[in-house]
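User: Quick sanity check before I run a bigger batch. Here is a single chain. Can you write out its predicted 3D structure?
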Amino acid sequence: MSVTTRVPARVAATTATGWSLALAVLLVVSCAAGVAIGAADLSIGTVVESIAGRLGIGPGTDLLTTHIVVDLRLPRVLAAALCGAGLALCGAVLQSLTGNALADPYLLGMSGGASLGAVLALTAGVGTAGFLGMGAVSIAAFVAALVSLLVVFLISTSPSGALMPGRLVLAGIAIGQFAAALTSALVFFGDRDAAHRVLQWTLGSFAGARWSGLVTIAVVVAVTSVVLLAHARVLDSFAFGERAAASLGTNVERSRWVLYGVASLCTAALVAQAGVIGFVGLVVPHAARMLVGPLHARLLPVVALAGASLLVWADIAARSVMPGRELPISIVTAVVGVPVFVVLLRRRGARS
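Assistant: Done. Predicted structure follows.
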């Protein structure tokens, strides 16, 4: 009897490990392709020589090639990978916590708040003074996203201090829409140059990614990953409802605050750095569950690797599809994400 119950678990674990290894290899290949592909295509050998030269372990290449590889493309590719991993992880966690299959990292009004903060900075003509590798616009977006999140949490907390998930979603939508309305008003009454800069920021881009800002993103995503993996069993318990989770020994309220807080802070930081990038946090968790199942200890690594690879290739497409012109990355993720999401919905509907 014990053998029959353990075999499926071992098979599932082996499958999850296999997918994780395959996606890790895909991510490495994707990053290499992302550095090599661009307006000036480079060979993988040239990329390796440039990086080795900057590290002082090889002869290197000419200064221009080294600058393109090390200072422009490599931080951009790594930023795309980190943002993809972070958004996908946050999407998976929010879908589990809310029990809403349509939940994504922007569910709690942070997207609208971050956009409003960025627009305020851009229309005010704030300079680019940095803090922790983040420019003034990014700092304004981050602070505004946190303020929006705080308002949503205040609205969603009962008099007893309990967080109410149903009210949380509605409050997030309302605050997001209110912030979007204020953003539109600022753009409408602002000058055309500011409106153009706002549009570029809200559509998402990694063009401004640099090593200083990359450190901030890496720390945020790393901390988020560790906290979420440490709460993998807690997230599993939420699949059976709050009462079942409490009966399994889960401190529901504390876990909710921790997980919502971590996912929200991560999303706010990523939006502040790269703008609003949709569909990654919505589509990737669904696809990953179809590959390795719902258990979060197996799901979260696959989600992170898949999200990272997806956004790296989306960024490659954004700067390669139209020669001499770069597409906003949210357009690419929408073009890819909508058909994939429709297919996933149809497959899930066929099974039910």
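Residues 109 and 176 are 4 Å apart (CA to CA).

User: Great, the batch can go ahead then.
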